[in-house]
Design brief:
Number of domains: 4
Largest sheet: 7 strands, mixed
CATH superfamily of the largest domain: Vaccinia Virus protein VP39
Helix content: 40-55%
Structural class: alpha+beta
Strand content: 5-15%
Length: about 700
Amino acid sequence: MNTHIQQRVSALPEVYQTIYGHPEWDGEASRDCNVRLEIISRQYDALAQALGRPLRVLDLGCAQGFFSLSLAAKGATVAGVDFQPENIDLCQALAQENPALDVSFSVGRIEEVIQALEPGQYDMAIGLSVFHHIVHLHGVAQVQEWLERLANCTQALILELALQEEPLYWGSSQPADPRELIERCAFYKLIGQFDTHLSDIGRPMFVISNRRVILDGFNRSFNDWRLRPYPEAGFAHKESRRYYFGDDFVCKLFHFTTTSGLLTGKESQRNRSELDNEVAFLARPPEGLETPALLQHGCEGDEGWLVMERLPGSLLSELLAKGAAVDREAVLGSVLRQLAVLEEHDLYHDDVRTWNILVDRQHSYLIDYGSISGGKSDCTWPYDLIQSFFILVNEICSPERRTNAFWRSSPLSPFSLPEPWNRWLYAVWQLPAEQWNFRTLEQLFNNKSSLPAPQENLSAVERWIAAQEPMMLESQQRQIALEGRLHQLEDQVSEMNSAPEEPEVAEQPWLDDIGQLNQQQAALAQQLEALNELVQRQVAAAEPVPLPPDVAALSARLDDAERQVHHLANENALLRAEIDKIHRSRSWRLTRPYRYLGNQVYLLRQYGFVQRCKHLAARVLRASFSFLRQHPAMKDKAVNLAHKVGLYQPAYRIYRRLNPLQHSQMQADAQILSQTEMQIVHPELLPPQVNAIYLKLKKNK
């Protein structure tokens, strides 16, 4: 080895990484870097191919420079930064040893480097197992801000993040979920998980970007991204989904767990099932439907995704909100045709809403394909698909009566619709409910002008419904207005409570408003409670639907299995408690020497005296080698002494036998170098006589 390099390696506080180009130090490294390098190299190659050029890379916390030098060997221009001068001294020596690589190293603090970054200065940044120290020093919020800035200034980040569960002094400073640090970035995806030398807890590695969707086989820039599929979605998916819009693609990223912990198991399963439904539907859409092409999809761990072709147009909900001109005839006709085609294939869309209809100049598309399945039910009130479609027609044809509330607006009868829509839905209204289907709706839609007007044939019940609906709508709108006003007044109260006290308080008429609003709110609450009781009585009075025999048998088996699992879990907990009591007992501590001797006798009988002596010698040697690794100066003296007395080769063979190489550079070299070249790189592979001559020459030199 180059003496210059050897001195700098010996001066390191810790040989943390593989030493680039020096496989003889592989056994000293705390972490094998080759597996992580393979994953990082794949990300590098994908981004370089997408950009059409070699990348400019920033290695934050570069340590001994293995990743910096390895990426530079792929053609990258790399800048490595580390706060320890000993690391940078070695990195610069390795860079001088490899002058063909475009790589530079400097001593610096990551915080200052990020703050000084210019947008576009680097294409990729990597930070491997370094940001937990910064979190410990500056807190989660500050690191979130720095990482967001880092993502804004680059095309992609690759971060390996430590976990709160790791048993080290900085563990309590970390967030409960490492994704909290990158939650403010647009795109992030788990690409690996790796063990460390500190504990058996694996650390996750993420690829992150504020500019690109980065998936296996897909690396494209996006123009816009959202946490909600449409503005009115609110907190529907609890920010477990992310939507990315490129020039010609749409990407949906589903998280099955969230950092907030608010996503329930049922909602997580809904994410999984909708992803599966959408992939299955787009992979083989029914004939007669115009659907986007499926470009990419996958699912790993707690994440799933799909990428599809982007269709032209705007959401119908946005057009109606803007008051834009909409061809209602064309929109309803197109949606009905698509629903009828789905129905012919025993498929149903359980969320037909204005925000799931994409309107172009010539076409209207029913989107959100994850809501298409064989289930013949709407996802929310009123649950019946045809009745839900009645509400959609009211929302499209009478948008002024639509309300933005948690529940959908209530008009689902045809009586308040304008001509000729009221004729069409009234004709459907007259049919028995068991005859309702979308093909019938489509046929009546095409002949709606010739159908009778509802006013000519209204029954007493229908007149009562027509009279009740406006009242229900007005009550709903008043409740929304009252809630909005109440929120405003609460904000005013909190502002006044936080303001400094004044000597004189002016009249406050809003106090009377609060009293009136509270009274009205209480009255509405009583009405809702009465309605709920009525619904519960009707449900209780309804006869239960018997299950088919095979389903009933499976349900009984499932109940038995759940009871058995619960019983076994209780037994397991009791047994663990008993074992803990035994381990904490005084008798267990007193009998520890006896148990140790008994174990040694058992091992002696099993392996024999000679083999047990070998085991003991191996343990002593491992402890000695570990001690020398932790004390570089003593290690150098021991190595020099071994060379002088001629014991270096036997000691090295014993060391390598106790510490076999894994994923080492030597193994990689063996695949591409000839035997002569291998002997030049690794003199210990020379014949004994030749190696003795080599050692004498080296000693005289």
